[in-house]
Amino acid sequence: MSRYEPLDDAADAVASRLPAPMGSLIDRERPLHFTFEGETYRGFAGDSIASALAAHGRLVLSRSFKYHRPRGALTLAGQDANTLVQLPDEPNVLADVRRLEDGLSVTGQNYSGSLDHDRDMRLGKFARFMPVGFYYRAFYKPRGAWKRWEPLIRRKAGLGRFDLDARGSYHDKAYLFTDVMVVGSGPAGLSAALTAAEGGARVLLVEQQPQLGGSLTYARFDIDGRRGERLRDELVSVVARHPSIRVMCDATCNGWFTDNYLPVIQGRRMFKVRAKECIVASGSFDQPAIFRNNDLPGVMLASAAQRLMRHYAVKPGRRAVVLTGNDDGYLAALDLHEQGIEVAALADMRPSPENPALAEALAAAGIPVRAEQTVYEALHDKSLHRVTGVELRRIVGTGDVADQGQRIDCDLLCMTAGYMPVYQLLCQAGGRLRYDDEAAEFSISGLPAHLHIAGSVNALHDLDRVSEDGVRAATEALRALGHDVPMPQRSAPAPRRVNHPWPIFPHPKGKAFVDFDEDLQIEDILNATRHGYRDVQLVKRFSTVGMGPSQGRHSALPTARLVARATDRSVSETGVTTARPPFTAETLGHLAGRGFDPFRLTPMHRRHEALGAHMMPAGHWRRPAYYPATDGSLARERCMQEEARQVREKVGMIDVSTLGGLEIRGPDAAEFINRLYTFGFLKQPVGRTRYAVMTSEQGVVIDDGVSCRLAEDHFYVTATTSGVTNVHRSMLQWNARWRLDVDIANVTSAFAAINLAGPLSRQVLETLCDDVDLSAEAFPYLELRTGHVAGIPARLLRVGFVGELGYEIHVPSRYGEALWDRLMEAGAAFGLRPFGVEAQRLLRLEKGHVIIGQDTDGMSHPEEIGLGWAVNRKKPFFVGRRAVDILAAQPQKRRLVGFRLPASSAKPREGQLVLEGETITGNVTSCEYSPTLGAVIGLAYAAPEKAAPGSQITLRVDGGQEITAEVVALPFFDPDNTRQEL
Amino acid sequence: MTTQNATTGLSRPPLNGLHAERPRVEWKQLGDAEIPARFSGPTDEGFRLDHCGLADLSALPRFGLRGPQAAAALAERGYRLPDEPNRCRIQDDGSRLARLSSTEYLLLGSLTDAGQRVSMTAQDWATLPPGCYSLPRQDSHAWLVLTGASTARVMAKLCGVDLDAAAFPAGHIAQTSVARIDAIVIRDALGELPCLHLLVDSASAAYLWPALLDAMQEFDGGPLGLDALLSPAAA
Amino acid sequence: MKILHCPLNGPRNISEFIYGGELKTMPDPATCSDREWADYVFYHDNLPAVVTEWWFHSASGYWFLAERHTLTDEVLRTFDPGELFRQRVEFAHAETPS
C-alpha cells in the first residue's frame, strides 16, 4: 500500500464539504473569509475556526506546551487544549468552539519561528533530560539560580500574547430564576426538560454547544444510523417550542454552588442562576487510548471525527483506522464509511463486540476488524504534522503487546477507549466518585438534596435507559417541588460495558501521552510514583497532570489507573483528583463584569465640587479633604494650614453630614443609652449634650459621639462616620435581648450637618437665626437647642471638637444644600471659608481629641487613651463594664501620649514605631505640623512610665532614622478650653 | 427676619442636582421642591413608560411610622392596613401604605394629590401618640420608580430576589439589596402599567440612579419625568 | 451561594445577612469571676453540633436566631428572638448622680 498523502490546501475546499444532512451547524449560503498564520482561508457561517481549517486539510493548530509538538483538535468540542489559538486581542481562544467571523485573523501560539517549523521542537529530543519535576529540581540550585533562568523559561513556556492596549469589553451579570435547571441537552437532558415542563415547572435548559441534542447531534446509536436523528427531531421540536422551557445554547454552567447557585456563561454575560431543582445531564467524555504518538494531528477521538462530519460536513481524512474499546467504535466506523472515508481497519482491544450484528455490519461494509489488537504506535513523516499510518499489535496482557505488528497507512486515527462521566459540577456539589473495578467505570453518589443526575453521567449508556433516566430525574425534581406525580416504572438494567479496563500501551521510545496539555507521558506518571508519591493528589501536584486547560478531562482516568497499578491498589482505592470550579476557563471580564461599588454623597456634595475641593474617601462617603488655597493651589499642607488658621482666627465651616445619627426614643431611652455608653445618662438634662463613649464586651473603645437629650424620652446620639452602621446594628441586637421600651432609628442620611466654628461663628449664625438666643449665657457650651436657621428647622449643638466657639447645625438632609448656601452668603462678610477633613484633623489634634479608629486600635481601652473620665464606674452596668474593670485593675501596658517636635524636625508618619532601646513600646497614631503652635505635634502610644509630660520618647521615622520627641501635656492648644466655651 | 417654615425653594431632593446636568430637563413645582417634569420628548417618555422608564419621585411626601401603637394610629386616621409584613396596600386617595415589619409602616404620598394627604398626616403628628415613632423617610430615602414591561429583567441585573410578577405580584414588598445597597422594593401598578417603587438611602441615590440607567440600556430605557407618570397611559 | 430563610423576609441570599455570633448567656457581670467573663467574651465551644446563632437581615434591620449544624452547615430553624426573650432584662440599679 502506498503512503497516503495528507489533503492539500485545495482551492475549492469549500466545495469539497460533505453533502447535507451532514453540516448541521453550517450555513452554506454564507461563505466567510479569514486568515490563519497569514494565509487566507474560506469557511461558512456556523463553522468553528478549527472546522473551517480542517476542511482545508489544515489540522495543526498549535504547538504543545513543553516539547512544542504540532497538535490538532482532539475532541472538537472545546474540551482539549490542542486548539488554543491567538486572536489579535485575545489569547488562548479555543479554535474548535469559537465561531468563525468574516475577516478574522487567527495565529497559532507557543512557537518560535513559524507554527509549521518551530525551532523549539528540538526540545522534544531532550525530553529524557527533562523528566517531570525537572523545572523544580533543576533551576532552584544554587540559590538564586531561578532568578536567572526564570525569564528564559517563562518566554519558552508562556501561552499566547496579551494585548495590553486592548480595551475591555462590556461584560455583566444577571440573576435568572427557575424551578428546574437542566444542564446538558442530550437525550437525558431533553427528556428531563420536557418531563419537568409538562409537569408544571418553569425549566431552564442549558447547552454548551450551539444546538440542542448533545450526542444525538453527532453520535450513531444503531446500525441503520437513523435512530439518534429521529429521537432528536422528536424531542427538540417539542422542547424548543415549549412555553415553559427557556433554552440557552452556547451557554456553559461553570460551577455548582450551595443551594443550586449556578453560574452560566453565555456570550458576555454571566447568569447567576438560582434553581429550586437542578438536573445534571452533562453526559460523558470520550476517552483516548494511550500509545506512542497518540498526540499526532489526525489522531482524534471518534466523537471528534463524527462531529466534524455531522456538524460541519468536513471529511476528517481520507483513509481511517478506528481503535476502540467498546461497540461505539464500530458505529463510528460505519459513519466514516458512509461518508466516503475508507476505513482501513478497526482495531478492537476486546476479543469481540457485545453486539454481534456490528461485526456483520462491518464485514458487509468491507471493513476489516482486528480483534484483540491495539495501535502500538502512530506513524508520521519527519515533521510530525500528520499521522501517516499505524502499527497494530496483538494484545497479550494488560498493557502488553506482541513483539511483531502490522503497519497500515492512514491519515486519520479515530479512537474511543471508553467514557468518563462529566462529573465536575457534581463533585463540586459534594458528590463522591466511586470506581467499579469490574465495569472499569465511575459512578457518582452522595449528592445534596435538590440536585439530580441523569443519563450517561449516571453510568447509563443505552439510549432507551438514558431517556428513561431523564424522565426519572425530572419526576424526582417535580416531586421535590411539590407536584403530585407518580414515579415512573424503571426498565430492567441492560448493562453495557463501555470502558476498556486498560487502554494504555507503553512504548520503549516513549511519547505515549497521558496529558496532552502538559506533555506528560506514561513514564512521567510512573516516575512520580517512584519518587514516593502514592496519593493521586500529590502525583498531580508533582507532575502537573490535570492542571492544564482541559483539567484532567482525558488524563484523570489513565492517571488513576497508572497510579493504582504502580502502587498495587485498585482505582477505587486511589480515587481521582478533585474537580473545582470553574468547569471551563472564564475570562476576567466575566468575573469582574459590571461591578458595583456603592458610594454615598452628602447633600452639599455639588457645592464642594463647584469649589474645586480635593475629595477623599471616608467609609463609603466622599468628603472634601481640603479646598483650593487662596492662590488656587491644591497642595495639601498649604490648604490645610490656611483653612485651620481661618478657623482659629475668624470662622470656618465644615460639612459633617457623614456623622452618624441615631434617634433613641421611648420611655426607656435614657436607660438604653445608659447601658450602651460608658458615661451616666439617666440624669442628663434635657437641652444638654454629653460625650458618649462606647466599649465592646471586651472593654475596647469602639465608637464615640455626642448624646443630645431633646426630651425626657428622646435622645439624638451621634456616632462616627464609619462606626454608625455597626453601632446601630449592635443597639438593635442588644435590645432584641433586653426588650426595653425604646425605638432605635439610624437617621444618618436623614440629616445634613455643618459645623460652624471660629471666634466669629456666633456672629455669622445670628444673622440667620432669630428664634434661638445665641448669647453665651442663654446657650452655653455643651448645650443643645432646636430652632430655625435661614428658615430651616435645625438642631443646634454647642460642641468643641476643633476647640473654638462653634455650632453643629443639624437639619433635614433635603435642606442641607440650602443651609450651606445661606451660611456661605451670611459668612462672606466675616471671612467665612469652608474647611475640609484634613484641617479638622489638625485642629482636633491641637486639642488632643482622639479619633476612634485612628488613635485607637482593637486593644485600646478607655484608661489607655485618657478617657477614664468618661467612664461612670458607679452605675451597675454598661456593655464592656466588666472588661473595663478587669483591664483597669491590671498594670497598664501603654498609654496614648502627646508629643512635640521642633518645626524643623522630620515629621513622623502615622504607624511609625515608638522604641525603648530595641523594644517596640508603641506607635505614632496622628502627627501633623501645627502652624498655630509652630511645632510638629502628634499622638503616640508609649510605655506608661513615659506618659508624664517632659519624658523623652524615641521615634523611628523614614529611613530608619531615630529621633527623640518630648512628651507634653494634652491638649497642645488652649489647655483651659477657654476658646470653645466662649 | 422671621423666616420660620418658609422653606419653599430650600428643599432639594437628593437627585435634583444630577438631573439638572441633563440638557433638556424641564421642572415642575411639587410641594416645597422641584421635580423633573420631563427629561426628553413625550414620544420617548411614552415608550419608556411602557417598556423601561425610571422616574424620581423623591420630591413627593412620605414618612414612616413605627411602634406598638403605629397600626392603631394609622387605622384611626382612616388608613387601611396591609394584613401582613412586606405587603403594600393602595389607599382610596392613591397613597400607598407599606408594612415593613410587625410594627413598622411606610406611607407614600399619592401622585394625584401631590402627596397632600400624607403630608397633612405627618404634620398632624408633629406630636405623636405614645408607642408611635415617626421615621424621616423623606430625608433618609430617595424614591425611584421603575416602569414598564422590562422591570423584572432590569432588576435581575441588580438584585438577587426574583421580582418577576409571577413570583412577586403587585402589593408585595422585598427589603433587599439592589446593586449592593439596601432597598425597599414594592411592586405596584399605575393603571395597567407594571412598576416597582425603590426606596433607597438618599445619600446613595446618586450612585444608584446611573447604575439603574446603565442596567436599563439594553431595553432602550431612560429617565421619565412626572408628566409621563401623570399621562393617561399611567392613569 | 447559600440561602437563609429569614423569619420576616423569607428565603434570601446569605450575602444579605450579617452574622452576629453564637447565642450566649451573659454571666452576671457584677458577681462572675474574671475567668467566667473571659470565657464568655473570648471562648467558643466550636463543636460539631447544632448551635444557635444571631443573624441580621441588613435591608430590614431585623435580628433573628438560627439553629445551624456546624458540621453540615444545615440551618434547621430560624425564629424571632421574641420566642426566647420574652421579658425585659434588668440590671440592678445603684446609680448615684453623675
Give a brief outline of the structure.
The complex is a heterotrimer of chains A (982), B (235) and C (98). With 982 residues, chain A is an alpha+beta fold.
Describe the structure.
Chain C: InterPro entries: SoxD, SoxD_sf. The complex is a heterotrimer of chains A (982), B (235) and C (98). Chain A is elongated and about 115 Å long. In chain A, helix 4 runs parallel beside helix 5 (227-241), helix 6 runs parallel beside helix 7 and helix 7 runs parallel beside helix 8 (356-364). In chain A, 23% of the residues lie in helices and 28% in strands. Among the domains of chain A are: 172-281 and 421-480, FAD/NAD(P)-binding domain; 512-590, BFD-like [2Fe-2S]-binding domain (Arc Repressor Mutant, subunit A, Orthogonal Bundle), CATH 1.10.10; 893-982, Aminomethyltransferase beta-barrel domains (Elongation Factor Tu (Ef-tu), domain 3). Chain A contains 23 helices and 47 strands. Chain A starts with 26 loop residues before the first strand and ends in a 14-residue tail after the last strand. Chain B has 235 residues and is of the alpha+beta class. Chain B folds into 2 domains: 16-60 and 139-234, Gyrase A, domain 2, CATH 3.30.1360; 62-138, 2-Layer Sandwich (Alpha-Beta Plaits), CATH 3.30.70. Chain B has a 6-stranded mixed beta sheet. Chain C has one domain (3-83): Folate-binding superfamily (Folate-binding fold), CATH 3.30.2270. Chain C has one helix at 34-42, and strands spanning 3-6, 10-13, 17-22, 50-57, 62-69, 75-79. The termini of chain C are far apart. Classes of the chains: A alpha+beta (982), B alpha+beta (235), C mainly beta (98).
Topology at a glance:
The complex is a heterotrimer of chains A (982), B (235) and C (98).
Chain A lengths: L26 E10 L2 E7 L3 H7 L6 E2 L6 E2 L12 E4 L2 E5 L9 E3 L27 H5 L6 H13 L14 E12 L3 H12 L4 E4 L20 H15 L3 E4 L2 E3 L7 E6 L2 E12 L3 E3 L12 E3 H11 L6 E6 L3 H11 L3 E7 L7 H9 L4 E3 L1 E8 L6 E11 L2 E10 L2 E5 L2 E3 L2 H5 L3 E5 L4 E5 L5 E3 L9 H18 L32 E3 L4 E2 H9 L5 H8 L12 H11 L4 H4 L13 H5 L12 H6 L3 E5 L2 E6 L9 H14 L2 E4 L4 E6 L3 H8 L12 E7 L5 E11 L2 E6 L4 H15 L4 E4 L4 E7 L3 H6 L17 E6 L2 E6 L8 E7 L3 H13 L4 E2 L2 H10 L34 H9 L5 E8 L10 E4 L2 E12 L4 E8 L9 E5 L5 E7 L14
Helix pairs in contact in A: 4-5, 4-10, 6-7, 7-8, 11-13, 17-22
Chain B lengths: L15 H5 L5 E5 L2 E6 L3 H10 L1 E4 L5 E5 L3 H7 L10 E4 L5 E4 L4 E5 L7 H9 L8 E3 L1 H4 E7 L3 H6 L16 E6 L2 E10 L2 E9 L3 H12 L5 E3 L1 H5 L5
Parallel strand pairs in B: 3-13
Antiparallel strand pairs in B: 1-2, 3-9, 4-7, 4-8, 5-6, 6-7, 9-12, 10-11, 11-12
Chain C lengths: L2 E4 L3 E4 L3 E6 L11 H9 L7 E8 L4 E8 L5 E5 L19
Antiparallel strand pairs in C: 1-2, 3-4, 4-5, 5-6
